[in-house]
Amino acid sequence: MSSKALRGRANWQISSGTKGETAEDAFYLALSAHFKGTKYKVRKKPREFKNIYANVSLTEETLSQIYNPNETWTHGIIPDYAIDNAETKKSIYVEVKSQDGWVEGKPRNAGRGNVHERSNKYFTPGLQKILREMGHLSPDVLPFWVVFQGDVARDPKRVREISLWYTGIESHFLLWHNSKNPKQLIEHFENEIKPILD
Description:
Number of domains: 1
Shape: globular
CATH superfamily: Eco RI Endonuclease, subunit A
Number of helices: 6
Oligomer: single chain
Number of strands: 5
Strand order of the largest sheet: 1-2-3-4-5
CATH architecture: 3-Layer(aba) Sandwich
Distance between the termini: 51 Å
């Protein structure tokens, strides 16, 4: 990749990060207001999984075949949010994903990007097991909720991909089409997520 292309990519990442923070803020503000005076709380950047990968035990054979630095490091995940029920002590972990998309007035390539694909780590058995244990959820419950905001929630290609991936577990994702209006988000929480936490 040329240095000119790399400079353009860096600018795209800064823009994407800013949009992501705005999307996350809309989610946090809407649910914080909705939870006021209730047993529910939304926590930003829960850190209970910040070192889960560094603590993975490997076999001696695997260890003999990989680089093993003589130092410690932090290696894990930090979801965007956790929603906690103070009475039941149950928690669900939330990713808020925002991205440009192919919508009215934009070219088809406006839908490039893989923010929706990056959320798929939550489908992995090992991560689900750890999230369930920490969230005090039963083995039959998916311990995560992904909220897609912005144009990605209206992009005809991305919406079809997301809908296929979540077939049968539609309650664990939301295409929040208008993040200026919290009604859709709150209704989804009340109808689909709240029962998991009670």
